[in-house]
Structure formats: C-alpha cells, structure tokens
Amino acid sequence: MSDDSPGPEQTAGWAHSPILTRNFVLGVLNGTLFMSTTRLVDPGALLSLLILRLTDSPRMIGVMAFASSLGWFWPAVFVANRAGNRPRKLSIYRDMAVVRIILLWTAALVTFSHLAKDAPLVLFWLLAVAAFGQNSASGVAYVPFMEVVGKSVPTAHRGLFLALRFSSAELLGVGVAALAGYFLSGASGLTYPANFGWMLSLAALLQSASMLMFILIREPAGAVESRQFPFSVFLRRGVRFFRRDRSLRNFTVLRLMNSFASMSLPFMAAFAKQDLGVADSTIGYFMSVAAGAALVANLVWGRVGDTRGNRLVLIAYAGLSILPAVVALIAATTSPGQVTLPLVGVADVRVVLVGVVFFLGGLTGPGRQFGEANYILDLAPERRRSAYLGISHTLSAPQTLVPILAGWIAEDTSYAVLFGATAVFAALTTALAITGLHEPRRAELT
After folding, report:
1. With contact defined as beta carbons under 8 Å apart, do 386 and 143 qualify?
2. Burial, 413: exposed, middle or buried (Cβ in 10 Å; 0-12, 13-18, 19+)?
3. FRET pair for 359, CA 20 to 30 Å: which of 172, 218, 330, 399?
4. What is the DSSP letter of 399?
5. Nearest-CA neighbor of 3 among 385, 391, 374?
6. 151 phi and psi angles, rounded to 5 deg
7. Is the pTM of this model over 0.70?
8. CB contact at 8 A, 337 and 348
9. Are the beta carbons of 67 and 131 closer than 8 angstroms?
10. SS3 string of 7-59?
11. DSSP states along 123-172
C-alpha cells in the first residue's frame, strides 16, 4: 500500500463487522452526551452569563474563549509526532479523559464557593485556568480521537456518523438547555452562585459519561509511519506537506476565516442581556431553540457530505453564515418596537430578531463542524493522517485570538460594528471556500 492509497477503513462497510458496529454506536453515544452540554459550557452560550456576572465585561468573554481555544489547538502537532507510528492510539485519549474529568468537576464545585460573591475576579481566573487545562487535555486527545474515527467509520458513512452524533446531542441538548434555563430562573428556587454551580455540574456529569463511552471502543490497528521521527524532522516533513498540498494550505486558512465568519455568535447572549435587558432564563430558552434547529440541520449536513462531498458542506456553511450576522446587525440597529406573535403575544422586535439569530446559528453551526472534521479526514493519506491532523490543527491556532478581537470590538466600539464585520468576513470566507478547495472524493462521487 502506498502512502497515498486509501486504507481499508475508507472502502469497507461496517454493517457486517460486530466490532465496527459496536464502535459506531459507542461513538454516537459519546457525541450525544458530550455535545448536549455545548450550550452550557461554551463561553458564548450560558457560561457567558456567569462571566458577565463575575466581570461585567464582554471583553472577558473573549478572554475565556481564548483560554479554551488555545488549550484546544496547541498540543496537536506534538501528539501527532508521538502517535504517528502507533497502530493504536486510544490509550492517549483514555489518559487525557482522566485529566479532563478532574478539571471539569473542579470547575463545577468551585463555582458553588464564596468566591463568586467575595472575589469574583479570582473565580473567573480559576475557571479560565481550568478551561485552559481541560481543553489542553482535549487537544491532546484530538489526534487519537480523529484517528479512531477515521479507522472505524468508512468515508461514505462519516456524514451519517456525525449526523447521528449531532442530532441525538441536539435532541438531548434541548432538554439539557431547558433544565439549565430552569436552574437560572427564579422558579427553581436556586440563588446565585448555586444556580450556575448546578449548571456546570450537569455538564460535568454528562461529559464524564461521554468519555467513558469512547474509552469502551475497540480500536482497530491502522497503517502507520515506519518509525517515530525526531520532532525537528517531523516539522520539516509537515512544512513540506503543507507547501505541496494546496488544499491543505487553503483548508487551514479557511478554518481561521470560519472563526471570523462566526465571531459574533458567542456574543449574542451578552448583547441580548446588556443592550436589550433579556432575562437569563429567556436566553436559556433561546439556546433550546438553537438546539432544535440544529437537530433538523444535522441530518441535512450529514446527507450532503456523504452524497455530494464535504467541500460543498464548507461552501454552504460559509455562505449561510452571512445570514445570522446580518439579522444580528438589524437587531442592533433597529429602534425599539412591538410585534405580536402567535403563542407569544406582544414582544420587542429586537428580542425576536435575537431569537432568529439563535435559530439561524443552530441551523448553520453544524455545517462547520461537519465540513471541517470530515474534509481533513478525506484529504489526509492514511499513513500520514496523524501528521495532517496535527499540522492543520496547530496551524489553525491563530483563530484563538478571534474571540479577543471580537470582545474588543464589542466593548470599545459597538455590537453593531461586530455584527457588520462578521458579515463581511463570512462573504470573504465563502469566496475562499469556492475557489481554494478541491473535492478529495471527486472520483467516488461521480
């Protein structure tokens, strides 16, 4: 087998293999449990309400997002070199799961403490450090996770695999977000900071269970590099891959551009609360709306990726991401007014537009996750998959600065400027996706 030839996992089906079927089911359960918590622990979702309570600064939402993202990106290239010649890599994921679980529960439990009221900035920085540590462990686990998926799920079924993970997660996520909204509402009887402590505890419980599901997978052996290279040699080879493969270069740039094209979404909750006075519980219900929208969209994105290719998914995501930015801009520049809606009654038109943004974000967001995850697996030769994953992932690290830039724009200019800039970047990203990527599965799809 040559370095560039597809491995058996790319061509063989899994329906008649009990081990691969088991892995498929466990992988779906892992995604269901883990991603159902996204709207609880993401700095741009309900966690932003706690950040604002602790710091009263949209800029600090960007700082928390930076800490999380930096941890997620920096380790991959180092792990790729260490794991490149290992036929099985699940043990790396297992070790990191222990670290992640400890930090998740530490963050949840410390939120209950007196620090929330007596030393809010201390609590913020403790949570930021925990987020960096937890996401660094996740970054180490990224390469083995993607390798296991690449070996266990055939190319033509990866869209289905992700669709089931995301759709079931969004279905569970509707209830999880609603429960979190209940914790934050007066009806629960919980007071600050216990309401946020229970929210983070719920996330820690579900994410701990999700990692256990993935640890139970039986990883197939895969084709690997013949030996582990010294790190300097690995980097030189990575630079050579990057220079020779135009799609790898453009894909890495596209990942950065995608961050600019969606940079306003993490600040929608802050905008709704600070500028429109929307209650925390209402924002929780908006999160449920986004989860419901994503539940339907996941099936569509997965089908498009499997049947039409993941290049089209990335193009469609970039183009559609213009919509929530434009609607957010309208909400930020529209004068207060009343509108009557069925089942809701009279509502502020700006709040309604914010709800529409959450809905559109739910529809479009999975497209980025589907497209980026599957396109790099389609693009990478099997023996070099760890190298492609690690190099592309780590070179995408500059996108960790995007939330800080967005927070600065929101705080020092206005939310309207942030939303307008996001729409412009979304248009530029669409152009890059159309002109800069080729379809790795073109022969298979024609």
Report:
1. yes
2. exposed
3. 399
4. G
5. 385
6. -85, -25
7. yes
8. yes
9. yes
10. CHHHHCCCCCCHHHHHHHHHHHHHHHHHHCCHHHHCCCCCHHHHHHHHHCCHH
11. HHHHHHHHHHHHHHHHHHHHHHHHHHHHHHS-GGGHHHHHHHHHHHHHHH
**Residue range 55-99, pLDDT digits in tens:** 988 888 888 888 888 888 888 777 877 766 667 788 899 999 999
Q: Which residues contact 205 (CB under 8 A, 6 or more apart)?
A: none
- How many residues belong to the chain? 446
Q: Hey, how many other C-beta atoms are within 10 angstroms of the C-beta on 296?
A: 13
d(Cα 368, Cα 255) in Å, to the nearest integer? 9
pLDDT tens-digit readout, 251-307: 999 999 999 999 998 888 888 888 888 887 788 778 778 878 888 888 888 889 888
Please give the structure tokens belonging to residue 110.
């410390």
Does the bond joining 193 to the residue before it have cis omega, within 30 degrees of 0?
Answer: yes
For 246-271, b/e burial (b = at least 16 CB within 10 A) is: ebbbbbbbbbbbbbbbbbbbbbbbbb
